[in-house]
Design goal:
The chain is of the alpha+beta class and 169 residues long. The chain has five helices and seven strands. It has helices spanning 11-25, 32-37, 44-52, 103-117, 132-140, and strands at 2-5, 58-65, 68-76, 86-94, 122-128, 144-152, 160-168. Strands 1-2-3-4-5-7-6 form a seven-stranded mixed β-sheet. Strand 4, helix 4 (103-117) and strand 5 (122-128) form a beta-alpha-beta unit.
Protein backbone atom coordinates (compact mmCIF):
# COMPACT_ATOMS: atom_id res chain seq x y z
CA UNK A 1 0.00 0.00 0.00
CA UNK A 2 1.37 3.40 -1.00
CA UNK A 3 0.33 6.60 0.80
CA UNK A 4 0.95 9.96 -0.84
CA UNK A 5 -0.34 13.47 -1.38
CA UNK A 6 -3.17 13.54 -3.91
CA UNK A 7 -2.63 15.11 -7.32
CA UNK A 8 -5.12 16.68 -9.74
CA UNK A 9 -5.06 13.48 -11.83
CA UNK A 10 -6.56 11.63 -8.81
CA UNK A 11 -9.77 13.68 -8.72
CA UNK A 12 -11.95 11.18 -10.61
CA UNK A 13 -10.74 8.23 -8.53
CA UNK A 14 -11.34 10.22 -5.33
CA UNK A 15 -14.91 10.88 -6.47
CA UNK A 16 -15.45 7.17 -7.12
CA UNK A 17 -14.04 6.17 -3.72
CA UNK A 18 -16.27 8.72 -1.99
CA UNK A 19 -19.45 7.48 -3.64
CA UNK A 20 -18.67 3.79 -3.04
CA UNK A 21 -17.67 4.39 0.59
CA UNK A 22 -20.73 6.52 1.37
CA UNK A 23 -23.13 4.06 -0.26
CA UNK A 24 -21.73 1.24 1.85
CA UNK A 25 -21.10 3.00 5.17
CA UNK A 26 -24.00 5.41 5.39
CA UNK A 27 -26.99 3.21 4.46
CA UNK A 28 -28.28 3.27 8.04
CA UNK A 29 -28.03 7.07 8.23
CA UNK A 30 -28.93 8.52 4.83
CA UNK A 31 -31.87 8.03 2.47
CA UNK A 32 -31.30 5.33 -0.16
CA UNK A 33 -32.44 7.78 -2.85
CA UNK A 34 -29.76 10.27 -1.82
CA UNK A 35 -27.02 7.61 -1.85
CA UNK A 36 -28.19 6.18 -5.17
CA UNK A 37 -28.20 9.63 -6.77
CA UNK A 38 -24.63 10.46 -5.73
CA UNK A 39 -22.44 11.40 -8.70
CA UNK A 40 -18.71 10.62 -8.64
CA UNK A 41 -18.06 13.30 -11.27
CA UNK A 42 -19.72 16.13 -9.34
CA UNK A 43 -17.37 19.03 -8.56
CA UNK A 44 -14.31 17.45 -10.21
CA UNK A 45 -12.99 20.72 -11.63
CA UNK A 46 -13.24 22.34 -8.19
CA UNK A 47 -11.45 19.36 -6.63
CA UNK A 48 -8.69 19.49 -9.24
CA UNK A 49 -8.18 23.19 -8.51
CA UNK A 50 -7.97 22.51 -4.78
CA UNK A 51 -5.47 19.70 -5.39
CA UNK A 52 -3.21 22.10 -7.31
CA UNK A 53 -3.31 24.57 -4.41
CA UNK A 54 -2.81 22.27 -1.42
CA UNK A 55 -1.27 23.79 1.70
CA UNK A 56 -1.43 23.35 5.47
CA UNK A 57 -5.08 24.52 5.43
CA UNK A 58 -6.24 21.97 2.82
CA UNK A 59 -4.45 18.68 2.21
CA UNK A 60 -5.76 15.53 0.60
CA UNK A 61 -3.88 12.22 0.92
CA UNK A 62 -4.56 9.01 -0.96
CA UNK A 63 -3.81 5.35 -0.44
CA UNK A 64 -3.18 3.37 -3.57
CA UNK A 65 -2.62 -0.25 -4.39
CA UNK A 66 -1.08 -1.24 -7.71
CA UNK A 67 -1.57 2.34 -8.92
CA UNK A 68 -5.30 2.42 -8.05
CA UNK A 69 -6.59 4.95 -5.50
CA UNK A 70 -8.48 2.93 -2.87
CA UNK A 71 -8.89 5.52 -0.10
CA UNK A 72 -8.39 9.16 0.77
CA UNK A 73 -8.43 11.60 3.66
CA UNK A 74 -8.90 15.36 3.75
CA UNK A 75 -7.78 17.81 6.40
CA UNK A 76 -8.58 21.47 6.20
CA UNK A 77 -9.49 24.68 7.89
CA UNK A 78 -12.38 23.96 10.28
CA UNK A 79 -15.78 24.49 8.69
CA UNK A 80 -17.15 25.66 12.05
CA UNK A 81 -16.01 27.93 14.88
CA UNK A 82 -12.86 26.38 16.35
CA UNK A 83 -9.96 27.49 18.54
CA UNK A 84 -6.90 29.00 16.83
CA UNK A 85 -4.30 26.52 15.56
CA UNK A 86 -6.98 23.84 15.05
CA UNK A 87 -7.32 21.76 11.89
CA UNK A 88 -10.31 19.60 10.96
CA UNK A 89 -10.23 16.06 9.61
CA UNK A 90 -12.95 16.56 6.99
CA UNK A 91 -13.12 13.03 5.60
CA UNK A 92 -11.71 9.52 5.55
CA UNK A 93 -13.18 7.30 2.83
CA UNK A 94 -12.06 3.78 1.91
CA UNK A 95 -13.42 1.53 -0.84
CA UNK A 96 -15.57 -1.09 0.94
CA UNK A 97 -13.53 -4.01 -0.38
CA UNK A 98 -10.50 -2.52 1.43
CA UNK A 99 -12.18 -2.04 4.82
CA UNK A 100 -10.60 -3.59 7.93
CA UNK A 101 -7.08 -3.52 6.51
CA UNK A 102 -5.83 -0.54 8.52
CA UNK A 103 -5.91 1.85 5.55
CA UNK A 104 -8.24 4.36 7.20
CA UNK A 105 -6.18 4.21 10.39
CA UNK A 106 -3.00 4.86 8.41
CA UNK A 107 -4.58 7.85 6.67
CA UNK A 108 -5.71 9.32 10.00
CA UNK A 109 -2.20 8.81 11.45
CA UNK A 110 -0.79 10.59 8.38
CA UNK A 111 -3.24 13.47 8.93
CA UNK A 112 -2.24 13.71 12.60
CA UNK A 113 1.48 13.76 11.75
CA UNK A 114 1.05 16.38 9.02
CA UNK A 115 -1.07 18.57 11.30
CA UNK A 116 1.46 18.39 14.11
CA UNK A 117 4.36 19.09 11.75
CA UNK A 118 2.43 22.07 10.31
CA UNK A 119 2.18 23.68 13.76
CA UNK A 120 -1.42 22.96 14.69
CA UNK A 121 -2.26 22.40 18.37
CA UNK A 122 -5.26 20.14 17.81
CA UNK A 123 -7.09 18.15 15.18
CA UNK A 124 -10.87 17.81 15.38
CA UNK A 125 -13.58 15.97 13.47
CA UNK A 126 -17.31 15.34 13.34
CA UNK A 127 -18.54 11.74 13.05
CA UNK A 128 -22.08 10.54 12.37
CA UNK A 129 -23.56 9.32 15.63
CA UNK A 130 -23.89 5.56 15.42
CA UNK A 131 -21.01 5.08 12.97
CA UNK A 132 -19.38 2.73 15.45
CA UNK A 133 -16.44 1.53 13.31
CA UNK A 134 -15.30 5.11 12.68
CA UNK A 135 -15.86 6.15 16.30
CA UNK A 136 -13.79 3.20 17.54
CA UNK A 137 -10.96 4.04 15.13
CA UNK A 138 -10.84 7.66 16.25
CA UNK A 139 -10.85 6.70 19.93
CA UNK A 140 -8.08 4.15 19.34
CA UNK A 141 -5.99 6.95 17.81
CA UNK A 142 -6.42 9.22 20.82
CA UNK A 143 -9.38 11.36 19.79
CA UNK A 144 -11.63 12.24 22.70
CA UNK A 145 -15.35 12.76 22.38
CA UNK A 146 -15.93 16.33 23.51
CA UNK A 147 -19.62 16.01 24.35
CA UNK A 148 -20.54 18.46 21.60
CA UNK A 149 -23.18 17.35 19.11
CA UNK A 150 -24.74 18.91 16.06
CA UNK A 151 -27.62 18.06 13.77
CA UNK A 152 -28.18 19.13 10.21
CA UNK A 153 -30.39 18.17 7.28
CA UNK A 154 -28.56 20.43 4.81
CA UNK A 155 -26.74 17.59 3.05
CA UNK A 156 -29.36 14.87 2.70
CA UNK A 157 -32.71 16.39 3.50
CA UNK A 158 -32.97 14.27 6.66
CA UNK A 159 -31.39 15.08 9.97
CA UNK A 160 -27.92 13.68 10.56
CA UNK A 161 -26.63 13.71 14.13
CA UNK A 162 -22.90 14.09 14.58
CA UNK A 163 -20.51 13.80 17.50
CA UNK A 164 -17.43 15.99 17.91
CA UNK A 165 -13.99 14.51 18.61
CA UNK A 166 -10.70 16.29 19.31
CA UNK A 167 -7.07 15.31 19.76
CA UNK A 168 -4.33 17.50 21.17
CA UNK A 169 -1.16 17.52 19.10
Amino acid sequence: MNFRDAEPKDAEAIGQVRVAAWRAAYQPFMPKEFLKAMDATRNLSELRTRLVNQNSHFTLSVAEECGQVVAFSIIGKPRYEAPPKTIELWAVNVLPEYWRRGIGTSLVKRAIAFSSFSGFNSIELWCIKGNTPAQETYKKLGFIESGRERSSSRLTGITLNELHYAKAL
